[in-house]
């Protein structure tokens, strides 16, 4: 598994961004996937997770109803659609792969992308 995340940027509060994460390996569909985010001086925070098939997902309370995680196994791709963005969503966002499903703890994720910066201005 080799993950690369992209799609971050600068957006005004209330706006939208779509993050993507692509796996250049050949076992993407075997893994549960997740998005985490991190701000300076804080631990990596769970955002969302999705099972291997894409049929089950879970979210942090802080993003529920605003963010949507999805995946396309044919394209080895994971997505995070972020709507109604708030300044507190500003962080570096990471995608990650886990052999376990629906995990919210970052220690369960074995593979990580490099992170993409999301900045939401007020």
Structure commentary:
0% of the residues lie in helices and 48% in strands. The model has no long low-confidence stretch (mean pLDDT 96). The protein has 122 residues and is mostly beta strands. Strands 2, 4, 5, 6, 9, 10 and 11 form a 7-stranded mixed sheet that branches. The protein contains no helices and 11 strands. A hairpin with a 4-residue loop joins strand 7 (67-72) and strand 8.
In short:
The chain has strands at residues 3-6, 9-12, 17-23, 32-38, 45-50, 57-59, 67-72, 77-82, 91-98, 111-112, 116-121. With 122 residues, it is mostly beta strands. Strands 2, 4, 5, 6, 9, 10 and 11 form a seven-stranded mixed β-sheet that branches. Strands 1-3-8-7 form a four-stranded antiparallel β-sheet, with no helix packed on it.
The N- and C-terminal alpha carbons lie at a distance of 37 Å
Percent in helix: under 10%
Count of individual helical segments: 0
The assigned structural class equals: mainly beta
Biggest pleated-sheet summary: 7 strands, mixed
Order of helices and strands: EEEEEEEEEEE
Whole-angstrom Rg? 13 Å
Q: How much beta, percentage-wise? A: over 45%
Mean pLDDT rating: 96
Q: How many E-type strands?
A: 11
Flag low-confidence runs. Answer: none
Provide the descriptors you would attach to this structure in a database record.
0% helix, 4-stranded antiparallel sheet, 11 strands, mainly beta, 7-stranded mixed sheet
Topology:
Layout: E1 3-6, E2 9-12, E3 17-23, E4 32-38, E5 45-50, E6 57-59, E7 67-72, E8 77-82, E9 91-98, E10 111-112, E11 116-121
Parallel strand pairs: 2-11
Antiparallel strand pairs: 1-3, 3-8, 4-5, 4-9, 5-6, 7-8, 9-10, 9-11
């Amino acid at each position: 598994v080799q993950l690369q995340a992209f799609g971050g940027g600068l957006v005004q509060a209330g706006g939208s961004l779509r993050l993507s994460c692509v796996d250049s390996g050949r076992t993407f569909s075997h893994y549960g996937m997740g998005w985490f985010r991190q701000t300076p001086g804080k631990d990596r925070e769970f955002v969302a997770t999705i099972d291997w098939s894409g049929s089950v997902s879970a979210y942090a309370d802080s993003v529920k109803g605003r963010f949507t995680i999805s995946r396309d196994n044919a394209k080895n791709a994971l997505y995070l659609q972020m709507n109604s963005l708030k300044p507190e969503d500003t962080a570096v966002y990471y995608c990650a792969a886990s052999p376990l499903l629906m995990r919210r703890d970052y220690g369960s994720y074995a593979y990580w992308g490099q992170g993409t910066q999301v900045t939401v201005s007020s």
